[in-house]
Please model this.
Amino acid sequence: MEQPSDTVHGGQVIQTLQPGYSLFDRTVRAAMVVVAAKGSGPAAGGAYAEAPRTGENIDEKA
Model:
């Protein structure tokens, strides 16, 4: 499951819903987790950052 987050970068685990288990170095049950949605986080300006307007140039070099 993915969830927008303003505190962690996209792809990082936010919450563990159900722990995973291993037995003799083999996965018995994988963990069930919530991860931050890609494009969210402090570097991206958060999940609810304002989107650029149409025709607005983001890259200064272009």
